[in-house]
Amino acid sequence: MVKPNYTIPMKKILILLFFCFHVVVFAQHKQPNIIFILSDDHAYQAIGAYGNKLISTPNIDRLAKSGALFNNAIVSNAICGPSRAAFITGQYSHKNGYKVNDGVLDTNQRFLPEILSQNGYQTAWIGKWHLGSLPKGFDYWNVMPVQGHYFNPDFINQKNDTLLYHGYVTEVITELTKKYLKDRNPDKPFFLVVGEKATHREWLPDLQDLGAYDSVKFPLPATFYDDYKGRTAAAKQLMSVGDVLTLKTDLKINQPFGEKPKVNNQPAKPAVKGKEIEESMMRYYQQGEYARMDSVQSKAYRNYYGQLAKEFAQLNLTGNALKEWKFQRYMKDYYATAKSLDRNIGEILDYLDKNGLSENTIVIYASDQGFYLGEHGWFDKRFIYEESLRTPFIIRMPQLPALKDKKVNQIISNVDWAPTILDFSGIAKPDFMQGKSFLPVLKNPQIKNWSKDGAYYHYYEYPGPHYVSPHFGIRTDDYVLVRFYKGTEAWELYDLKKDPSELNNIVDDKHYNTIKNELKKKLNKLIVAYDDQEALKVFNQAL
């Protein structure tokens, strides 16, 4: 009788053993510390590790080299507050109730930090919060009201004290972060969110970074002069670099820089409290961000931007020349603001290394969504199109060393962040969370059928401030199908392989009828699965 041959090649055995070893090591490791650095409006295309060769982000790149970089991390609603709400609830906007900015997040629902706290974690959020209500479920929090300020920012802590800290916001956040790490209970794991203000509009660089990129002439994006043919919603927006960015407020030409409030020079030390802080806030709303600067800060800004104003006046620009000048100034201020962000991320990583925390601390870097850096002629975000839909997402996990310098192409969404963080610590995902853990992707980046039905998106804010029509849609590896339903009522379809810039709306191309119908079925399936009743009503009416 011939015996069957069960011989397995040695190479396959070694790969299997290697994978199993790391899964066992991860499972047996004690609960990891988790630091989630969440920036604001920081585009993936503004990072060296994502291919930008004109600027420098050595510390974010350093994180990518020691971890995994996601090329298809997307958000469910590309706007600041709703993105944060999706993060801490694991739910889409229609479920957590925070659909547009400047609302108030309902704190009667359960949040990620509460679940972590119930399972042995100490939890904290430091920096930008931007969810209307005060943080809930965190053992410690120290957050900025509304958008926060770049210079001499106000913070509210869990004692309900409102304090003003002297200095540049990114450095203040880093000092508060290091203080928390020093003062925490060393016998318990921690979950810490570092909420950065950078790189939000208006872009105010740290004093040491003024002019950091003045020697660079940034190339115009190929789509800068997009004519929006076949894309009605894109044509109606108010996000144009050339027409919407203001010379005085955004680009700081002929902007007076105030000298109040007067505070001490110690970073991360309370300086103003009570009634005085209310007066400081009033100065901000009456006079703008620049009224918060002290004499040293305002002098540096007057000197730098005053010289730019003189040069600009001599140019006497109009038409496309003016638009392109605005683009250059936008890029120089945006990247200079990001320079401090990167530098301070390096300080946090250095602190972990120096204090023996790196070995058991997962570090994640992400932005609340992507951002337009002149693509389609725009700044800001909101659209389902790639530059705003995709966010940078980098994760370093010492528990999975095989992830070092890996590029991951699987689609993940920000509603998946909370379930994944729970999975890191062996905590079951609660039923209310709509996302799913992508830990299986981290264990095996080549896993099949991870997002076979694509990812769901729904944007709501309209008409202000940028007149982007509300829309929902599906993003797969190869296609984007979207339905605009207010302001503009239209379907759009894009073939991402043939048209990565999304210039050619092929929704009426008969050659794509089969694909379009399949995508509509998948989109309907997601709408029903996530119980988005508003989208379901629009979808059915649009058929």
TrEMBL record:
Stated family: Belongs to the sulfatase family.
Transmembrane segments: none
Keywords, ordered alphabetically: Hydrolase
Superkingdom as given in the UniProt entry: Bacteria
Source organism of the structure: Pedobacter kyungheensis
Keyword Nucleotide-binding: no
UniProt-listed PROSITE patterns: SULFATASE_1, SULFATASE_2
Molecular function (Gene Ontology), one example: hydrolase activity
InterPro entries (alphabetical): Alkaline_phosphatase_core_sf (IPR017850), SGSH_C (IPR032506), Sulfatase_CS (IPR024607)
Stated name of the protein: Sulfatase
Stretches assigned to the N-sulphoglucosamine sulphohydrolase C-terminal domain: 374-527
